[in-house]
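Researcher: Structure prediction, please.
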Amino acid sequence: MAIHYFHLKADWEGGRNSKGKISCGQLDSTVSIPKSMGGPGAGTNPDEMLLGAAATCYMITLAAMLERADVHVHSLSLESDGTVDVTNNVFTYKAIVHRPLIQLEGERDGDAEQKIERLAHKAEASCMITRALEGNVEVKAIPVIEWMSS
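Model: Predicted structure follows.
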């Protein structure tokens, strides 16, 4: 069994409407509460970072699964949306929706398309971040598959 360890260092300048700094490996960012939630919007925030973690984990997992399935991808891009509910001044991350655009070389192939769609959904369920969110945040994938004729 391999254990991977990550260490984050954080500094905060003051009260709620201040800003801070975080660093963890290649991540080095200013953080604050977003303007849309009554903060200064001086840097990224936990909501964006959670969405970023879920999206990058999903994209890497999907790319690896497509590669292992010998699917030759022309390009892979992703748009993801996070939804936060505010009820009685309590903020709750409710859902993340990933919309991968998978572009493939060649003519449309219905069997291959079904296989790729299955992999897109399997990647969502297999991603480590999605599994960590399970039971708290609904995460789903809505893949779009395009064929690029030569």
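Model: The mean pLDDT is 94.
Researcher: Thanks, that helps.
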